[in-house]
Amino acid sequence: MSNWFNKVTIETDSILEKIKEHPFIIELMDGTLSTEVFQFYVNQDSLYLSEYKKTLAQLSIKCSDENDTQFFLDAATGIINVENELHQVFLNKEQFNNEPSPSCELYTDYMSRIVNNQTLEEGLAVVLPCFTIYKEIGDYILAHQTNKDNNPYQNWINTYAGEDFAKAVLNAIEITNRHAEKAPEEVLNKMELAFIKASKLEWMFWDSAYNKEAWKI
Questions:
Q1: What is the structure's pLDDT at 162?
Q2: Pick from 216, 217, 207: which is nearest to 40 by CA?
Q3: Which of the residues 63, 121, 130, 136 is marked catalytic?
């Protein structure tokens, strides 16, 4: 399959639209999102990224192509370091909570399980929504906002709508498409399931941040 990504995104368009319509994104775009909610989000995102780095590094080990290996190693360091810089700006370290929310833990554990226990192709599919959805949301906000000069979250928005991140996203898509092209139907079906579930978990992550999700017991 020459362009697996284009096909699978048709299956997840409705999820992306739900994310765009979420109050977190709407309020982030117009700058009215509460500081407390954004702090909660950045706190959880920091915990998420600490696990995502490990997952990307593990995925790099499974790649036989040295360029693919290098890409995911770079993604686990350089790209994530940019995000960590944002956390230094927006995260109140005095109030940092080391406990991941249920949705955060579910998402990172699911990706880790797929990458460590399933095929390389499934691993590529499960980490991809974190690249592609953030790019889509960054572009969407930048295209529709009217307050670029006074939005308190503009640095965050600019990062995910930026050229460097766009290049990384295109590389991740190209690698996944290349492996999907040679994959049997059974693996393609599992890739699609992993991509769809990870996309749903992206929505859950935004929603959990907006509601400052906590363990119920």
A1: 81
A2: 207
A3: 130
